[in-house]
Specification:
Helix content of chain B: 25-40%
Oligomer: heterodimer
CATH topology of the largest domain in chain A: Ubiquitin-like (UB roll)
Number of helices of chain B: 13
Mean pLDDT of chain B: 97
Number of domains of chain B: 3
Number of strands of chain B: 12
Number of helices of chain A: 5
Number of strands of chain A: 5
Bound molecules: flavin-adenine dinucleotide, FE2/S2 (inorganic) cluster
CATH topology of the largest domain in chain B: Uridine Diphospho-n-acetylenolpyruvylglucosamine Reductase, domain 3
Distance between the termini of chain B: 48 Å
Strand content of chain B: 25-35%
Largest interface: A-B, 30 and 28 residues
CATH superfamily of the largest domain in chain A: Beta-grasp domain
Helix content of chain A: 25-40%
Radius of gyration of chain B: 19 Å
Structural class of chain B: alpha+beta
Strand content of chain A: 5-15%
Distance between the termini of chain A: 46 Å
Low-confidence stretches of chain A: none
CATH class of the largest domain in chain B: Alpha Beta
Shape of chain B: globular
Low-confidence stretches of chain B: none
Strand order of the largest sheet of chain B: 4-5-8-6-7
Largest sheet of chain A: 5 strands, mixed
Shape of chain A: globular
Strand order of the largest sheet of chain A: 2-1-5-3-4
CATH class of the largest domain in chain A: Alpha Beta
Order of helices and strands of chain A: EEHEEEHHHH
Mean pLDDT of chain A: 96
Order of helices and strands of chain B: EHEHEHEEHHHHHHEEHEEEEEHHH
Chain lengths: 161, 284
């Protein structure tokens, strides 16, 4: 069937089987490899993308057709190259990653978390990220990275006021 | 993992969805998909027709103040419920219980209607639905009917929602007494190995009315009548909470799985019941 997905601000016209999972539509048809597949059973969170700017979801547990009508944001959509998002920069600077497999999803869940709660405490960060597993870092530097990004983003927001 | 092939439908009205169900025997509704889709990936469910309720969200996703109760549309997500100041204030047991489901991503997709229509024996929301004496509104081609929580859950993944029927609304009576949901989470899945919800009112130093429900322990969530009887009208003390909680699995054959055997699950239910009674009393 033909569907239109709005991904990172662009409309993508795709032809999918109804059973196509959103993560495969993004990876294989849109060429966006930021959303990974880990457990493929809704547990690890590495497939997390953000719907409508603020709602993180596991794209392995959603059919692509269910995402029609939503704005989808993947890690490629928030920044890259010389133009890193504060979260991407902070994960880099705080060593919030080792193998990097969980990182795009950690960043997208944190991105949504900071929309709801611009100044989260450490507990709130850990609670917010509890659907994202990391098998390398032990989470300490991930939490630090989210803190750093939150501070930077709130300073930028203040400067803009 | 790919589910088996199916024909996809996305109706724009409840009536159309019901017609589709009646015309296609081997069909399934999908709401948030967070129980159904994993089951389809494992091919434990292979519906020939999938009826997606995504276009019914504008009709069935709401939280309305109805005076003596809160009306919640079946497609309302856990996240919408846990963020609602009305639910937090007037149905605190439901707000607390859904906030303990899974993780943020799961709570963004999972719906209250999907959870209770599915009736997973390890699901959290059924405990809150039973303890708050909610009423379910079910629609079929013949019209609407209402079913009390006590008649709704009918065993292992079984509810009062029959073939060709849609759960439309959940009506939760407003409650200003104390309440608490205590859960022992499965460390990997997050589901309840055991969970106990308590709602109670204070009458001076005595317990007034009380409802106690247990999930995770039997083939479906149930009201723990023995605990309720042992508490009603009694002077509160922690010793009373403990002796009443000992009735949490009266008449129940506790489930066993590789994670928790029956004796352990039963003990968890009693311990959680005691904690929930004390916590509910302290915030009444
Ligand atoms: C990783 C993970 C962790 C989880 N952890 C927990 C947890 O800790 N606690 C917990 O309680 N649950 C947990 N869940 C399950 C979650 O709560 C599900 O979202 C919920 O059980 C089903 O709701 P849904 O909207 O996703 O329903 P779906 O999966 O879409 O549907 C479930 C079933 O109900 C039927 N159905 C759905 N809506 C209706 C309706 N309106 N009328 C009639 N029938 C309907 C469908 O046909 C289907 O058979 C978890 C799920 C995942 C993936
Ligand atoms: S791949 Fe989606 S949660 Fe693990
Ligand atoms: S950095 Fe390797 S899984 Fe997180």
């Amino acid at each position: 069937m033909d569907i239109t997905l709005k991904v990172n601000g662009q409309e993508k016209k795709l032809n999918v089987e109804p059973r196509t999972l959103l993560v495969y539509a993004l990876r294989e048809q849109c060429g966006l490899k930021g959303a990974h597949v880990g457990c493929d059973s809704s547990s690890c969170g590495v497939c997390t993308v953000v719907l409508d700017g603020k709602t993180p979801v596991k794209s392995c547990t959603m059919f692509a057709v269910q995402a029609e009508g939503h704005e989808i944001t993947t890690v490629e959509g928030i920044g890259g190259g010389a133009n890193l998002h504060p979260l991407q920069k902070a994960f880099h600077e705080q060593h919030g990653l080792q193998c990097g497999y969980c990182t795009p999803a950690m960043i997208m869940t944190s991105y949504a978390l900071l929309q709801h709660n611009p100044k989260p405490t450490e507990d709130e960060i850990r609670f917010g990220l509890s659907g994202n597993l990391c098998r390398c870092t032990g989470y300490m530097n991930i939490v630090k990275a989210v803190k750093q990004a939150a501070e930077e983003m709130s300073q930028t927001a203040q400067a803009a006021d | 993992m790919y589910p088996a092939k199916f024909t996809y439908h996305a109706p724009w009205s409840v009536e159309e969805a019901i017609t589709l169900m009646n015309e296609n025997e081997d069909s399934k509704l999908i709401a948030g998909g967070h129980s159904l889709l994993p089951t389809m990936k494992m091919r434990l469910a292979t519906p020939a027709h999938l009826i997606d309720m995504k276009n019914l969200r504008s009709l069935l996703s709401y939280i309305h103040d109805k005076g003596d109760h809160i009306a919640i549309g079946s497609l309302t997500t856990y996240h919408q419920i846990e963020s609602s100041s009305l639910v937090k204030q007037a149905a605190a047991i439901l707000a607390q219980t859904v906030s303990e489901v899974g993780d943020m991503q799961v709570r963004n997709m999972g719906t209250l209607g999907g959870s209770i229509a599915h009736a997973d024996p390890a699901g959290d929301p059924p405990a809150a639905i039973l303890a708050s004496n909610a009423t379910m509104v079910i629609q079929s081609s013949g019209g609407e009917r209402t079913v009390a929580a006590s008649d709704f859950f009918q065993g292992f993944f079984e509810t009062a929602v029959g073939a060709g029927e849609i759960l439309k609304e959940i009506r939760v009576p407003k409650f200003s007494g104390g309440s608490s949901y205590q859960k022992f989470k499965h460390p990997a899945s997050g589901y309840a190995v055991a969970g106990v919800a308590v709602c109670l009112t204070k009458n001076g130093g005595n317990i007034g009315g009380v409802s106690v429900s247990v999930t995770g322990v039997s083939d479906g969530a149930y009201r723990a009548n023995g605990v309720e009887a042992a508490l009603t009208g009694q002077a509160f003390s922690e010793a009373l909470a403990a002796s009443a909680a000992a009735h949490a699995i009266d008449g129940i054959d506790a489930l066993e799985d590789p994670f928790a055997d029956a004796a352990y699950r039963g003990q968890l239910a009693k311990t959680l019941a005691k904690r929930a009674i004390i916590a509910a009393w302290n915030n009444a």
